[in-house]
Amino acid sequence: MSDHKALVLDEVRKYHQDVQPDGGFVPGVTEIWPSGAVLDADDRAALVEAALDLRIAAGASSRKFESAFARRLSRRKAHLTNSGSSANLLALTALTSHVLGDRRLRPGDEVITVAAGFPTTVNPIVQNGLVPVFVDVELGTYNTTARRVAEAIGPKTRAIMIAHALGNPFEVAEIAELAEEHDLFFVEDNCDAVGSTYRGRLTGTFGDFTTVSFYPAHHLTMGEGGCVLTSDLKLARVVESLRDWGRDCWCEPGKNNTCLKRFEYQMGTLPEGYDHKYIFSHVGYNLKATDLQAALGLTQLAKLDGFIEARKRNWRQLREGLDGVPHLLLPEATEGSDPSWFGFVITVAPEAPFSRAELVHHLEERKIGTRRLFAGNLTRQPAYIGREHRVVGTLANSDIITEHTFWIGVYPGLTEEMLDYVISTVKEFVEKRG
Ligand SMILES: Cc1ncc(COP(=O)(O)O)c(C=O)c1O
């Protein structure tokens, strides 16, 4: 490293110390965010170093992150993307590829998903001309069950795509078995659950694909970013092609002739020897991330175990502190799971003497941030009304979530003192109103 660079990075670390908030926690004044990035001097220095090196596009840091992250999540291949939503789009779109022959998903095929969740778990289904089949979830775990998924399988069903709700694993082993039995593709949206396990095995290792988000609310952050992971090398190649403009060539940017026959291909009706770098075998996108993002991802990844521990510890503190508070349904880990929590979900009992709006207002006024369980019942959102879909059973619990559920934070930036304040603030409200 040059002396000048070392000097700059040293100054960056000092600057990091300068800008650390020095005030302690002041109840009712200090914001208690529901989620946020936890960034240290290493993260700041990594970003600046990538900038000094002008690593402005996807390159060596992206590849390094992909290998390290694939290893960490026990998958053979990881492809970095510009968001978790892009990762979901790539995973599902890959299942429509001609490379899969007769197994490929075709317009009109059904994909089972849940009604209560994040929109971009479902959007790729619609965007690919497929039909979402919505099942309900359970209150408490906020996940669907293998039984509900089994009931939803019909003659046109070809895939399952579900997210682990706010870090809590769904019955992923049983649903993977169902997928296998019925020859269905299975995509696990693991955006909120990195580090969770089900029956001792990491979530994200059961499906054909798993996806992750690196938006600041998530377990690791790159600012914006995401990842598609798979252990199926054929599917991995399709994801790479779709992510990188649809090209057939797999040379890294700035590299040529990795396959050693760059000018020897004949595809489509192109002339013999057309440059493989410019042969497009998929109708693709450009959903790549940059090395600036990957550089941050690498320093964040080094802290993942600590982040996961903090999320679990914070969740436990809230769970124990709020246990027994009347009129509130507290979250439960899915049986057999060890969640790496994303948030702490609370449902106000529909018959409670106060409403969700009143409790949320009480918390927000005291600087305790709240969030909804994303879109609630997606079929009630304006974007989805009138779109082709199928509903299996009722969506009664998804409706309860839409009307009575919210979540508060457990991210590693929260302290024991902050969470004690959250607990006492909730209790104070319920005692007064209950
Ligand atoms: C379950 C789930 N899937 C997908 C996404 C989309 O990720 P991104 O915001 O990186 O596009 C989110 C975002 O929070 C999410 O919670």
TrEMBL record:
N-terminal signal peptide: none
Keyword annotations from UniProtKB, A to Z: Aminotransferase, Pyridoxal phosphate, Transferase
Cofactor(s), by name: pyridoxal 5'-phosphate
Listed CDD domains: AHBA_syn
Pfam entry (one): DegT_DnrJ_EryC1
Keyword match Transferase: yes
InterPro entries: DegT/StrS_aminotransferase, PyrdxlP-dep_Trfase, PyrdxlP-dep_Trfase_major, PyrdxlP-dep_Trfase_small
Record-stated family: Belongs to the DegT/DnrJ/EryC1 family. L-glutamine:2-deoxy-scyllo-inosose/scyllo-inosose aminotransferase subfamily.
Protein name: Lipopolysaccharide biosynthesis protein RfbH
Species annotation: Streptomyces hesseae
Lineage: Bacteria, Bacillati, Actinomycetota, Actinomycetes, Kitasatosporales
Gene label: rfbH
